[in-house]
Structures are given as C-alpha cells and as structure tokens.
Amino acid sequence: MPDWSGGSALAKGEPFGALLELPGRIEAEAFDRGGQGVAYRDGDSEINLGGAFRPGEGVDLEPTLDSGGGFNVFRFGDSEWLEFTAVVEPGIYDFHARVASDRDYPGDLYFSINGVPVGTLPVSSTGGAQLWETQTLPAVRLDWKGAVTIRVRVEGPNVNLNWIEFAPRTGGGSAGRAPFGGEPASIPGRIEAEAFDFGGQGVAFSDAELLNHGRTFRNESVDIGESGTGFAVNNFVDGEWLRYSVAVADPGTYMLRAAVSSDHYESPGNLRIRLGGTDIATVPGRLTGSWHEWQIAEITGVKIASAGEQTLEIEADGGWMNLDFLEFVRTGDPAPQSYAAYAAALDLPPGADQPGDDADRDGRSNGEEFALGSDASDGASLPDTRVDTVRAAGRDYLRLTFLRRAGGVGTGTNSEVGGVGIEAEGSFDLRAWNASVVTAPVPNGLPDPPAGFEFASVRLAAPVTSGGSGFLRLRLRFVGDPGVE
Fold it and tell me: Containing H/E element for 315?
C-alpha cells in the first residue's frame, strides 16, 4: 500500500501511486512525491491546511463537494505549482480543468511539459469555492511520447482544482497537417498569425531556429509573443513560412489587410501570400518605429478564384517583421463613407449638419455618431461602447470596446477612417489624460457588427490597482477641419 503521508523529499519525477497515462484524467491530489520545490511549490509549505488525504505534504487538500467525491486542491494561489509524472502519446488534445473559485477574477493556469510551455487557461469565476465547472483549453499539440513531467502553475488569485483531463481531438494527431482549433479559418474574415496549422517543421511551417523565443501560446518553434490583440508571430525572417487551412465562402475580389510591425535597422522585407499554391498578393513591410507599434497594410484587388477548403501560405521575403493577423474583406462590403455623404444621406437640417453639431440633441456630436456607428438624426441611437476589465499576466486592466467604421488605417489606439481620426486616451485622475493606452483583444460574445463596421478594443497599459481608479476616452478629429474635435 502506498505511503499517503508524503514523507521526505524523493527524486524528482517519482509518481504518486500508479503511473498516470494520457490521454486520461489526472486527479489534482495525485501530484508527484518529492516535497516542496521538487514535486510542488506551496506558499505555506509547512502544513496541509485542509489536513486531508496527504497530511504530510504542504499542498492544501480537502474533501470535495464535486460530483464523484474524493479530494481537491484548494487555495491554489499565485506562483504555486504542482507536478505530475505521466506517460503521453503524441497528438492534439483539449485540456479540461475542473475548477471552482469565488474570486471575481481567479488566477490563470499555465501548463508546461518537461519545462516547455504548452498553453494557458484563463480561469473564470464559478461563483463559489465548491461550485465546480469544467473549463477548457482547446487544441494543444503534444509532440512527446513516453514519460514526461507535467507542471500546472497558477498566476493570480486562488483557484480550487479537482482534476485535469487530456482528451484527444477527433481526427487530430501528430501525423500530417491539421487546422489549429479543429476547423479551417474562414475567408472572408480574420486569420490570427499564431493560429497556423498543426504539423510541425516542414509541414505546417518552416522556422530558421527550433525554438519559440517568445516561449508563449504554443510549443512549436515559431516565435510567438504578446500583441495588443492577443498574440503575434515575431521575428518572421527571409525564407520562413506558415500554412493555414482555410475555407473560402465566396470567390471574387477582396481587400487584404495585414497588421505588421518592424524596427529592423535595414528593411522589414515583404510577405508573399499564396492560396492553393498561387500567389495572390504581396504585403509590403513597414518600418513602424517599434516592434510593438502596429500598422495596417491594405492591398486591394486581391483575386480569389475558387471556393472551398484550401491552403493559405505566408512566406517572408527578406528582412525581419512581426505579423499579428491577416484579414480578407469583400470589396462588395460598404466602403468607408465621408462625413459629407453621411450627413447628406440623413438629410440633416441646415445649421445642424456639421460634424461638431448635435442634430438629434442626444449629447453626441454628428461626427461622433458617424465614426462610431449610430444615427445622428435619431436621439435614441447612440454609439455602441462597452467598458470592462481584461486579464493579462494575472493582472486586471481597464478596457474600452467600441464600434467603428471598418477599413481604416492605424491601430486601435490611433486610427483614421472616412476622414475621421479616433484617438484613445487614458487617465488615472481625470486631470491629466496622459496615461499610456494600448490595443487589447476584443471580448468574446459581441454581436455581429453592421456591414462596414468592426469592434475595436483598447486598454490602459498599467493595471488598475486595488481601490484605484482608471479612465478611458475617445477623442475624435475631423481631417481637414482641425478646429472640430
């Protein structure tokens, strides 16, 4: 019978009980034997505060009220981790975690195998420390075979953990190429650069170095780092390429938009875009002044000959560049209007038809309603803006999401479309609007925007501290009329 007490420190990687096998489920309380700093890290390692199951260990365990009974790890908090020795088969897996938390913004779960990051699960509040939910990190590629060490680490406030389950994706595997997320990306639509296919070097991508220098998001050798909209491919250099499974809904003529950045001392180079083996566009690189300053390059007249599932390939041609996303927009979608055309179409009355006027007396200028998607002749129609917090690296940041006309140039923090500039500004005291603002990922669950519009999000670059305040606003500037804001 195993020694449930934990005992003294043992060699790293000695399993607790029978050797775990993946695919399969791992009970959180079955972390390896070895003690603090070897099999786990616990902030109060001298005592198991729950006193249950393995009282000789420092990990806090308690009887669970979850279905199936047993035990769960509780007070699993910031920078604490658990390790498990398991035998794994290569493949594409969904990671399911059985979690509970009464915190508004619990910590995130970071998964690594043999020291290599493989994915992060942002945990959502369940409303109670014993109200359990299964939350999922989808489509994680594992290339290992045999015995490995799995580490689960928390960044942020406490999470309770009952078990984690590694479930193979139907049709997913290490052989051949498979779409990231299980389904081909849609055209028209946006394709995130980091969502290249599974398949590995020479199949789904070609990278000059067999190391992800960003050490985030995926355990492939493509360099991935954080961007204002989530993640981006970094250090995209001459001869490297990425492949994506895509599904084209409608053949025809498109506008291609690419979010790029570069601060290379010579030239950022270009991106060659192929679909079904045929060159369809070249995206010229831009020296944006910083690797973190993004610009949108637009290529019109892109011809897509056929519908259906195809392979999209992006190849770097010279230089160094970062790529956040590609977006295919039908040229048949409404193009950005000028303010004059917008005012004429609404038949705004003379004397109340200028950008700075408020024709419907709803407290929003005509120009503001033009840029942010509402009707300047209807007092009940207001711009669609939303404020919430977004979590990054275990911290909370104030986020503003707004509807704007699509097809503009610039970034979420400073863009121009249809003759209107939109600049996001931040403050912590409402006196000085000089707090740094960066682009942010758009929240999930938003309604489909009207044709010709898109949602954009910005956030304060600094987190909101406990008890502190933060503020975001949009300043509009009408091109050609510097006196109107």
Answer: strand 308-317
CB 226 within 8 A of CB 316: no
Alpha helical stretches, state H, 350-434: 366-372
How far is the C-alpha of 197 from the C-alpha of 4, rounded, in Å? 43
Calpha distance 101→108 (Å, rounded): 12
Q: State both tokens at 5.
A: 């007490």
Which pair of structure tokens corresponds to residue 459? 């956030």
Q: Peptide bond preceding 138: is omega within 30 degrees of 0, i.e. cis?
A: no
Cβ(136)–Cβ(96) under 8 Å? yes
Alpha helices in 228-363 (DSSP H): 339-346
Which of 26-30, 47-51, 102-106, 206-210 has the lowest average pLDDT?
206-210
In this predicted structure, the answer to whether residue 372 has a pLDDT above a threshold of 50 is yes
| 426 vs 372: CA distance, rounded Å | 19
Type of residue found at 256:
L
Q: Confidence band (pLDDT; 50, 70, 90) for 26?
A: very high
Query: Which segments within 79-227 are labelled E, that is strand?
Result: 81-88, 91-101, 108-113, 116-122, 128-142, 146-155, 159-168, 185-187, 189-192, 205-206, 224-227
Encoded tokens for 378 = 């209807």
Distance of CA 230 to the CA centre of its chain: 3
Q: What are phi and psi of 267, to 5 degrees?
A: -155, 145
Which letter does DSSP use for residue 366 in this model? H
Length of the chain: 485
Q: Report the predicted TM-score, pTM, of the whole model to 2 decimal places.
A: 0.47
Per the listing, tokens 């403050």 go with: 427
Q: Alpha-carbon distance 39 to 33, whole Å?
A: 6
